[in-house]
Amino acid sequence: MVEELELVLIGLLTALIVMVFFSFWLFFRNVQVTKDIQRLNARSTNSGRKKKKIRQTIVKLKRIKHSRVKKMIILMSLSVTLMASSYALKTHISRSLSGENGDTMAQAYYLIRNFEEQVDLAATKSEEEEKVTRNINYLATTMASYGVYTASYLNSEEGQLALNKYYDAIKELGINNATMANEFYGNSILAEETQEDIKRLKAYEQKVVDYYQIDTSILEKK
């Protein structure tokens, strides 16, 4: 969805540039017409035929000038509308997750909660040791790979900062626990420390959710 909006924004900006350029072209052409009218008005002649021809030329030039003024007004009105539309669309895009970031966010939401669950299962020995250790290692390794993800450049600076901090926090949680997967089973102290890390990570996550106005129920379904 965001990718399609980016194309629409590019189209709006292109149309805006063309309209502004054409408006300036009409303006400078009218400046020349005004000079031509002034020059003709200043011309003196005793010939009645020449005077008539000059008057006809002046009338024609004034019509051209008037027509161009009308076109400029229309173009400038359209330009203002396009500027407002482009600004509104850019603002919307800056606060929307791209398709890739949206998918990454959904995956991260699942990974964190699955990892949290596996840590609890390991600490309480509620699951077979080999299985839960393997799951923790897999989830931690996957989270460690989040260092390659970055927010879209089209997002606002605030939005990029929130999302990139979130990705970095996921990466750090994954790196710190990938090598300790074998130590979680029956280790309530390590589990508590890790849960505290997860709480801090969820604080970063909440900032992303609030900024981009994400419906977490949709993430849970994914």
List the helices and strands and how they pair.
Elements (H helix, E strand, L loop, with lengths): L1 H41 L5 H47 L4 H25 L5 H16 L12 H22 L9 H25 L3 H6 L1
Helix pairs in contact: 1-2, 3-4, 3-6, 4-5, 5-6
Determine the fraction of residues in helical runs and give it as a percent range: over 70%
- Tell how many strands the DSSP assignment holds: 0
Instruction: Count up the helices.
Output: 7
Q: Major beta sheet, specifics?
A: none
Mean pLDDT: 87
Distance between the termini: 17 Å
Low-confidence stretches: none
Strand content: under 5%
Principal-axes geometry comes out as: rod-shaped
| Class derived from helix and strand content | mainly alpha
Taken together, the total number of domains comes to 2
How many whole angstroms does the radius of gyration measure?
A: 33 Å
Order of helices and strands: HHHHHHH
Structure description:
The protein has 222 residues and is mainly alpha-helical. It has two domains: 2-94, Orthogonal Bundle (Helix Hairpins); 99-221. The protein contains seven helices and no strands. Helix 3 runs antiparallel to helix 6 (188-212) and helix 5 packs antiparallel against helix 6. The model has no long low-confidence stretch (mean pLDDT 87).
